[in-house]
Amino acid sequence: MTMTSKGLYPSRVFDTDYDTISQFYGRDLGGKDFFTWKHFKDTDHLTSPIKRVYRHQSDHVTQGIIISTIYSFTYNLQHRTVNIIGDLGIDDAVKSTSLIKSLLLAGHQQNTDIVICYSDDRKIAIYKKIFDKYTATTNYITPYADTLLQPARSSTLFEEISAEKISDISFYNNLGRKKDLNYFYYLQQHPLYQRFHFIKYKDFYCVFGLTKDYAEILELSHTCDEIFFWAIQTSQYFHIRCKVLLPKSRFEKLTAKTPKIINKKDFNLLLSSNKGKELDFDPAHTWISRLERR
Q1: Whether residue 38 is found in the same domain as residue 60
Q2: Distances (CA, A) of 55 to 21, 34, 52, 81
């Protein structure tokens, strides 16, 4: 279904939505294989999550789009239904504040405990302003730095383990889906990474995804300073450069031992909670895996 005079209505995701979104963004957004993996192979504890697309159309031409996906998330012992909204795209020829508002509110309206979206500093401030004014949710921004760095050349201890073994451990301060074996099988199908390494040292666990440009920290078993230092240092065994998402409030401390910061990009989590469903979490100690950053 498409937009009528009464508003936007949900539809399913189509292959052609990739071309539409790429055209709006002016880039390929990871390629068609990534879009297929993200939306047609997506999984949530052995089930396929509910996905809804909202489109603004004129004369059968899509001028704006947003995709909503519903998951079951945990944070330590807390369980919440979560609606992640993303792939917001609008044709430059018709871009307007009212259309952005309409698409965001359509994506936001699902019957879940929490709504999540991600963006840069400028856009996330706009999204929060819209949610503050037009919804009854409590809205909170947590800033991160998506960081590419070169770790120091020094030795560190670790052992490689299987995906089966890492799926049996507990993950603390991780906001996301249940990290069971099905989760890790899906992660290993991610088309942007050439191979994966599952590693541990004592009670530290980490998953690396390798590209030709860097080793990226995709999963961490908890969020203490020491596990970040260890994972960053260990990345040198797989690539000269490391990519990692760092809480902005801890950025200086967590990169103090790093000789070279190659690039740092703003990345923000906007968490919108319905009354009585607020998440008790520490923004400075909340890990968001690569899988959940849709």
Answers
A1: yes
A2: 11, 21, 10, 24
Label the pairing between strands 215-220 and 242-247: parallel
Same domain, 187 and 116: no
Amino acid identity, position 131: F
Residue 279, SS3 per DSSP? coil
Question: Percent of the chain, pLDDT > 70?
Answer: 97
Rounded distance between C-alpha atoms, residue 117 and residue 140, angstroms: 11
Q: Which helix (H) or strand (E) holds 266?
A: strand 260-273
Q: Are residues 176 and 243 in the same domain?
A: yes
pTM above 0.90, yes or no: yes
| CA angle at 195 for the pair 193 and 200, rounded to the nearest 5° | 115
- Using the structure block, give the residue that is written with the tokens 């508002």: 101
- Please indicate, yes or no, if residue 63 is contained in any of the structural domains: yes
| DSSP 8-state assignment for residue 176 | B
Separation CA 177–CA 205 (nearest Å): 17
Whose tokens are 């923004």? That residue is 283
Does pLDDT of 1 surpass 80?
A: no
Dig out the tokens for 13 from the structure: 């995701």
Q: How far is residue 136 from each of residues 15, 96, 119, 283, measured CA to CA in Å? A: 34, 24, 21, 21
Number of domains in the chain: 2
Domain membership flag for residue 276: no
Q: What is the mean pLDDT of residues 220-243?
A: 97
Residue 85 identity: I
CB-based contacts of 131, cutoff 8 Å, min separation 6:
104, 108, 115, 137, 139, 270, 272
Task: Quickly tell me which residue has 């998951």 as its tokens.
Answer: 71
| Same domain assignment for residues 42 and 156 | no
Give residue 172's domain range. 146-267
Per the CB < 8 A criterion, the answer to whether 46 and 177 are in contact is no
Closest CA to 194 of 183, 208, 209: 209
